[in-house]
């Protein structure tokens, strides 16, 4: 999975988090994050918002990989199950997204978040494709 530019425009929030793009192709996508103290909750494990962000982005990228004209995949709905505590500072977590079904305007996806071999969280989501450049520029 290799694509040099995962997003048509910069996403400052993901840059601030330190999200690393690993690839997207043929309905699959992967991103990663090396955890720092700022990513932790009060129990010193990955904050749920960080986990959900990674799952959300991995699913959106997986869906977009099926539609080359798409400029964005906007989240319509998302359900997340947290299975066990996430990583601690210094560990690297990886989110893998998979597109399950697509229509002309929507894509149904799932994603998993792993800390090494441990499955930390799983999500399902629905995404709407945006194709117009001006629509993306207003996001």
Please report the number of helical segments. 3
Low-confidence stretches: none
Beta-strand segment tally: 6
Q: Could you state the CATH homologous superfamily?
A: Hotdog Thioesterase
| Distance N to C terminus | 27 Å
* Residues in helix, %: 10-25%
Category by helix and strand content: alpha+beta
Looking at the structure, the CATH topology is Thiol Ester Dehydrase, Chain A
In round numbers, the mean pLDDT is 90
Shape: globular
CATH architecture: Roll
Largest sheet: 6 strands, antiparallel
Strand content: 35-45%
Q: Tally the structural domains.
A: 1
* The CATH top-level class label: Alpha Beta
Can you walk me through this structure?
It is a single chain. By secondary structure, the protein is an alpha+beta fold. It has a single domain (12-137), classed as Hotdog Thioesterase (Thiol Ester Dehydrase, Chain A, Roll), CATH 3.10.129.10. Helix content is 20%, strand content 42%. The chain is built from 3 helices and 6 strands, in the order H-E-E-H-E-E-E-E-H. The protein has a 6-stranded antiparallel beta sheet. Strand 1 (20-25) and strand 2 form a beta hairpin. The longest helix has 17 residues, at 48-64. The chain starts with 11 loop residues before the first helix and ends with a helix. The model has no long low-confidence stretch (mean pLDDT 90).
């Amino acid at each position: 999975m290799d694509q040099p530019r995962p997003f048509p425009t910069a996403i400052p929030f993901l840059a601030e988090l330190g999200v690393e793009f690993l690839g997207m192709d043929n309905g699959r996508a992967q991103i990663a994050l090396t955890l720092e103290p700022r990513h932790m909750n009060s129990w010193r494990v990955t904050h749920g918002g960080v986990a959900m962000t990674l799952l959300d982005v991995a699913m959106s990228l997986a869906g977009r990989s099926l539609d080359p004209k798409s400029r964005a995949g906007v989240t319509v709905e998302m359900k997340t199950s947290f299975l066990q505590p996430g990583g601690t500072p210094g560990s690297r977590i990886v989110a893998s997204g998979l597109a399950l079904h697509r229509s002309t305007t929507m894509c149904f996806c799932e994603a998993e978040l792993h800390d090494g071999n441990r499955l930390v969280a799983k999500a399902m989501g629905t995404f709407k494709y945006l194709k117009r450049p001006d629509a993306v520029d207003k996001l």
